[in-house]
Specification:
single chain, alpha/beta, eight-stranded mixed beta sheet, six-stranded parallel beta sheet, 31 helices, 34 strands
Length: about 950
C-alpha cells in the first residue's frame, strides 16, 4: 500500500460491484467513513458491515438516525451527515454523479472537493463524471469497472404480461399505488419501495420481495441509488418526472441508473416500458445497453466558507458564485429560503445578533421539510424551535412531548400513516442534534419507537392493500413445482398453505367468490392440484359409507350428508333410473367411477326396499293369465291405478285371480286399485320422484305432507294426485285409502232418495260439512243445501236455564226432594182469591210487564244447515273422473225445512210428522196447585202416604 493518500475514481455502470469494492477497501484500514445517497442504502451497508465486524465498532449516522458506539471505527452515513475532521484513514462517496442534482448536488460537490481520507479516498459513480473529476481533482486515479452481466431492452409489455422478478418504476406516489393495485389483482401483489419510507418499512417491504412472497416490486427512482435487489426486469411506467420545479423528460443516464438495477451478479437483466410510457427510441435504448452517455458538464456548488457574523453576511456568503466554469451556484434551496424568511421575522432578527446565534439559526434552517407543507408553515415551526433554543438553550420537554404524542397513533390508511411518518422524521432529526434537548437518549429512543410503530403499521397497511398473500403463495408454489398441501376441516373449508381458498362441497370444489381474474385462475389451479389426494380419500370413505348417510331429495338430488354428490336421471325403465355424479374432472376418472357406482347401488337398493311388495308381484311365477298381466300393469303404474282406467280388466278378473293379487297386498277399491303399503310417506316420496323423471319434468312436484287425509287441490300435472296416493274431488284431494273407507260407509246409505252426512263421515275426512259437501260433489253426488230449526237436547236446555230443576226420576227421588225442601203441597188448604181493588196499583219489581213472553228461559231459535246427498246418475257417468263437479247441482240454494229420507226405505218407526218450527217454551214458575192427586201419577202412593202421615 502506498504511503501517500490515494484518490481513486471508481467509475462504471450499475452492477459492477463498486460499492462492494469500497466496503472491502475500507475494512482493510483501521478507520473509515463512507457516504451514501439514501438513508435506506446507508442502513443496508451498515447491516452488512455489522455482520462482519460487529455493532460495537460501526456507527450509523443519518439525518434521523444516530447509532455511535464508544469504540466506533467505521462510519456509515448519508452524504449530508458525514462527519468532518475526524481524520479517518478511508473516505468514500457513493453515487458521485449526484453532484449534478439540482437539490442535493452541492453537498456531493462539497465532498468531492473537500472530503479526504488520510490513506485513501474513493469516488464511486457513473462514467459521466470522469471529465469533471479529472478537471477538479487532477490527482485522482481512475479505476474503470465493467458490468458483470448484460442489459438488454425488451420493449413494451402490459402489466398482465410482466415476467416474475420485475420492478415497475413510477415517479409519483399515486402512480406507484395504482400499479401496485393492478399487480395485486392480477399477480397476487407487489412490494412497495419509496424514498419517503422509513428504513424499517422499506426493509420489511423488500423482504416480501426478496423472500418470494411476491414476485413484483413497485418503486420510485429511489431504487436507482444503489439498492441491491434480485431484479430480472425493470419497466418504466413513465419517462417523465416532477423534479420539484417542473415536469421534465428523464435523461438517458438517469434511465440507465434505474434500468441497471436489473440483473445482479452474473445474471443478465432486461428493461422496458409499460402502461402509458412510450417506447424508448433506438438511440436511447442502445445508449443504455452500451453505457454511453454525455458527460456531466456542470456540478451544483455552494460556498463552503460561510460568514456567521450576521444573517445578512450568511445569506451573502451562501449566494456567492463559484470561480470554476464546471461549477454552478445551487438554486434557492429550502434551507436558504427558510433563512431569508426567518431573518425578516422580528423575534429572530432581535435574537440573531452574534456569530453563535447566526450559526444556531442556520442549523435550524437546515431541518428538512419532511412534512412537505407550505414554506410559511415550515418557517413558523423553525422560528419556534430557534427561539426556544436561543432563549432556553433547549427545546422544552413538555412542548416536544405534545408534538410527538399527537403523531403516536397507528390507526388510519396508508396516506395518513405516511404523513405521520413524515412528521415524526422532523422530531427524529431534532432529537439527533447534539445539545438541542435535555435528555438526548430519551428523546432519540422515544422518536425512534414512534417511527418504528408507524413503520410497522405502514408496512401492514401496504401489505394488506397491495399483497394478496393467498395468491402470491400459491403462485410461488406452482412456479417452484412444489407439493402444495391442502387441508379440509369438518365443515368443508379448504385452506392451502394456510390460506382460505374455498370449500369442498361433496366432490366439487367451490372457489372463494372474493377472487377474480388472474387471482381466481391461480386459486383454481393450485387448489385442485392440492385437493387431488383429498378427492381419493373422500371417494373411498363415500364408497364404504352406509346407506343411512345417503339420501335423495324431492327434486331428484342425491345427498351425502349435507353435500350434493349427484342427481337421478331418467332410465330405460321408470323403476330403474340412472345417476349423474357431481365430481370435478380434476378428481380423476377413478374417483368419478367410484362415486357413480356407489350412488347407483344406493338408489337400486332404495327402490328394491321401498317397492318390495310391488316387485314381488312381478317376480311371482304362480301368477298366470290375466292376473299376471294385471300384476305387470300395477308395476308399470308403481302400485296405484284409478279403477276407471282399468274397469274392463277388473271385470275380466276371476275371483281366483283377484285372490292371488290380494295375497300380494293389492286392494280392489271402488275408486282405486292400490297397494296400501305403498301409500306410506317414504314410497310415496320416491314414487313421485321416479314419476317426474320418467315424464322429463324440469321441476319435480313435491309429495303432500305426511299424515294429512285431505289436502287442497292445486293446479298440478295430470296424474300427480294418483302418484301421490290421493284423488282430487272438488276443492280438495282425499287420500285414496280414506276414500275407500268413506265409500264403504256410503254403501249403506240410500243415495237415490237422499241421505245426510254422518259424524263418522266427517271424522275420517277431517272436514267441515261445507268441505264435505264439496268433496261429495267432486265424487259425483248432488248436494242439496237446506236449513231448519236446530233443537237443543233437553240436558243442554237444563244447563242453560238456572233455577229449573229436572223432574225426579223415581218415587224415592221425589220423596227426598219434598223432604229436603220442607214442602208438602198436597197438605196445603186452598185459600180464596183476594178481592181485586178498584184501582190498579203500580207494578211491583217482581211483576212481569204485559206482553213479555211467559217463558223467559225458552231456548233461542237457531237455524241449522244440512245437506242431502243423492247420486247424480243423469249428470254423471257411473264412475266420474277425479275432480269433476256435478252438473245441475243445487248447492247453495236454501230449501224449506222438511223431513229427509234416512238410510234405505222409510225412517224407523213409520211416518213421523214434520218437526214443528214453533219454539218450545219452558217456565221456571211453580205449577198451579191441584186439589187432588192424579191417580195415574207414578208417585201417587208415596205422596198419599206423606199426606196421611201429616
Amino acid at each position: 500500500m502506498a504511503d501517500y493518500a490515494r484518490i481513486l475514481a471508481v467509475l462504471g455502470p450499475t452492477n459492477t460491484g463498486k460499492t462492494h469494492f469500497a466496503i472491502e477497501r475500507m475494512l482493510g484500514y483501521r478507520t473509515g467513513v463512507i457516504g451514501l445517497p439514501l438513508r435506506l442504502l446507508a442502513r443496508e451497508v451498515y447491516d452488512k458491515i455489522v455482520s462482519v465486524r460487529g455493532p460495537s465498532v460501526v456507527a450509523l449516522v443519518t439525518g434521523e438516525e444516530r447509532i455511535v458506539p464508544p469504540r466506533t471505527k467505521y462510519w456509515v452515513c448519508t452524504v449530508e451527515a458525514m462527519p468532518e475532521g475526524i481524520g479517518a484513514d478511508f473516505v468514500a462517496i457513493d453515487e458521485i454523479q449526484l453532484c449534478a442534482d439540482p437539490e442535493r448536488g452541492h453537498v456531493f460537490t462539497d465532498r468531492l472537493l473537500r472530503m479526504r481520507g488520510l490513506r485513501e479516498t474513493q469516488f464511486l459513480g457513473a462514467s459521466t463524471m470522469r471529465n469533471a473529476i479529472s478537471e477538479l481533482v487532477p490527482e485522482a486515479e481512475f479505476v474503470p469497472r465493467t458490468r458483470l452481466s448484460d442489459l438488454v431492452y425488451s420493449g413494451s409489455k402490459k402489466i398482465s404480461k410482466m415476467p416474475a422478478r420485475s420492478a415497475i418504476v413510477g415517479f409519483s406516489v399515486d402512480n406507484v399505488y395504482a400499479i401496485a393495485e393492478v399487480l395485486r389483482r392480477q399477480k397476487g401483489g407487489a412490494a412497495v419501495v419509496m424514498g419517503a419510507l422509513s428504513p424499517r418499512t422499506r426493509n420489511a417491504q423488500v423482504d416480501l420481495y426478496q423472500n418470494g412472497d411476491v414476485d413484483y416490486l413497485v418503486a420510485t427512482d429511489a431504487i436507482g441509488m444503489g439498492l441491491n435487489l434480485d431484479i430480472d426486469h425493470v419497466a418504466f411506467s413513465s419517462l417523465t418526472k416532477f423534479d420539484g420545479r417542473r415536469m421534465r423528460q428523464l435523461m438517458p443516464n438517469e434511465l440507465a441508473q434505474i434500468a441497471g438495477r436489473a440483473g445482479r451478479g452474473m445474471s443478465h437483466g432486461s428493461f422496458g416500458v409499460t402502461g402509458e410510457a412510450p417506447d424508448l427510441t433506438p438511440e436511447v435504448a442502445e445508449a443504455i445497453m452500451e453505457h454511453r452517455f454525455a458527460p456531466i458538464r456542470k456540478l451544483e456548488w455552494r460556498n463552503p466558507e460561510l460568514q456567521m457574523g450576521s444573517t445578512a453576511a450568511l445569506i451573502a456568503s451562501l449566494e456567492c458564485k463559484p470561480e470554476h466554469d464546471l461549477l454552478a451556484r445551487v438554486g434557492d434551496a429550502d434551507d436558504l429560503t427558510a433563512l431569508r424568511t426567518l431573518s425578516a421575522a422580528p423575534d429572530v432578527r432581535n435574537r440573531a445578533t452574534n456569530g453563535n446565534a447566526v450559526k444556531l439559526l442556520w442549523d435550524v434552517c437546515r431541518i428538512p421539510d419532511f412534512r412537505g407543507i407550505s414554506q410559511a408553515e415550515h418557517a413558523g415551526l423553525l422560528e419556534t424551535i430557534f427561539c426556544d433554543l436561543h432563549e432556553l438553550g433547549r427545546i422544552p420537554d413538555d412542548w416536544l412531548g405534545r408534538q410527538i404524542k399527537r403523531i403516536d397513533r397507528t390507526d388510519g390508511d396508508i396516506d395518513t400513516l405516511s404523513k405521520r411518518l413524515a412528521y415524526i422524521r422532523t422530531w427524529t432529526y431534532v432529537a439527533q442534534r447534539k445539545g438541542w434537548v435535555d435528555d438526548e437518549g430519551h428523546w432519540r429512543g422515544a422518536t425512534r419507537a414512534v417511527e418504528d410503530r408507524l413503520s410497522d403499521a405502514l408496512h401492514g397497511a401496504l401489505t394488506q392493500r397491495f399483497v394478496d398473500r393467498r395468491t402470491s403463495v400459491l403462485l410461488r408454489r406452482l412456479k417452484q413445482k412444489e407439493a402444495i398441501v391442502a387441508e379440509v376441516n369438518d365443515t368443508g373449508d379448504v385452506t392451502v398453505e394456510g390460506e382460505f381458498v374455498g370449500r369442498l362441497d361433496g366432490f366439487r370444489f367451490v372457489q372463494d367468490k372474493s377472487a377474480s381474474g388472474q387471482e381466481a385462475k391461480t386459486l383454481s389451479q393450485a387448489s385442485l392440484q392440492a385437493l387431488a389426494p383429498h378427492f381419493n380419500l373422500r371417494a373411498d370413505r363415500f364408497y364404504n359409507a352406509p346407506d343411512t348417510e345417503i339420501d335423495f331429495t324431492e327434486q331428484g338430488g342425491l345427498m351425502w350428508g349435507k353435500d350434493a354428490v349427484g342427481k337421478l336421471i331418467p332410465g330405460a325403465d321408470p323403476m330403474k333410473p340412472g345417476v349423474k355424479v357431481f365430481v370435478d374432472e380434476e378428481a380423476g376418472p377413478d374417483v368419478i367411477q367410484k362415486v357413480e357406482r356407489r350412488l347407483q347401488h344406493f338408489i337400486d337398493r332404495k327402490i328394491s326396499t321401498l317397492f318390495e311388495p310391488l316387485l314381488n308381484v312381478s317376480r311371482d311365477e304362480t301368477l298366470t293369465g290375466l292376473a299376471r298381466g294385471f300384476g305387470f300393469r300395477m308395476v308399470e303404474t308403481m302400485g296405484i291405478i284409478p279403477r276407471g282406467d282399468v274397469a274392463d280388466e277388473v271385470k275380466s278378473l276371476e275371483q281366483d285371480a283377484r285372490g292371488a293379487l290380494r295375497k300380494h297386498g293389492v286392494r280392489f277399491g271402488q275408486f282405486t286399485i292400490f297397494m296400501p303399503l305403498l301409500l306410506k310417506p317414504a314410497p310415496t316420496r320416491l314414487r313421485l320422484v321416479l314419476w317426474g323423471l320418467a315424464n322429463n319434468m324440469d321441476d319435480l312436484p313435491e309429495a303432500p305432507p305426511p299424515g294429512l287425509v285431505t289436502v287442497p287441490a292445486a293446479n298440478m300435472p295430470q296424474g300427480y294426485y294418483t302418484m301421490a296416493g290421493y284423488r282430487a274431488a272438488g276443492n280438495r284431494a282425499i287420500r285414496i285409502d280414506m276414500l275407500e273407507r268413506l265409500a264403504d260407509m256410503l254403501r249403506g246409505e240410500d243415495s237415490r232418495s237422499g241421505f245426510e252426512a254422518k259424524a263418522d263421515m266427517l271424522s275420517i275426512t277431517g272436514m267441515t260439512l261445507e268441505q264435505f259437501a264439496n268433496l261429495m260433489e267432486g265424487l259425483g253426488y248432488k248436494a242439496e243445501r237446506g236449513e231448519r230449526i236446530k233443537v237443543k237436547p233437553v240436558d243442554q236446555i237444563m244447563d242453560e236455564a238456572p233455577g229449573l230443576e229436572p223432574a225426579p226420576e223415581t218415587v224415592g227421588d221425589a220423596v227426598e226432594q219434598i223432604e229436603a225442601e220442607g214442602i208438602a203441597p198436597i197438605a196445603e188448604t186452598i185459600e180464596p182469591d183476594p178481592e181485586i181493588p178498584a184501582e190498579i196499583p203500580e207494578m211491583s219489581e217482581t211483576e212481569v210487564e204485559p206482553g213479555t213472553p211467559a217463558d223467559p228461559i225458552a231456548p233461542s231459535v237457531e237455524p241449522e244447515v244440512y245437506y242431502t246427498f243423492t247420486w247424480a246418475a243423469r249428470a254423471r257417468r257411473s264412475n266420474p273422473p277425479a275432480g269433476a263437479r256435478p252438473e245441475g247441482g243445487a248447492r247453495g240454494k236454501p230449501q224449506e225445512a222438511r223431513s229427509k229420507p234416512r238410510g234405505k226405505g222409510k225412517p224407523k218407526g213409520g211416518d213421523r210428522p214434520a218437526k214443528s218450527s214453533e219454539a218450545k217454551s219452558f217456565s221456571a214458575k211453580a205449577a198451579p196447585k191441584k186439589d187432588r192427586i192424579d191417580p195415574d201419577n207414578p208417585f201417587a202412593a208415596a205422596l198419599m202416604g206423606l199426606k196421611k202421615g201429616k
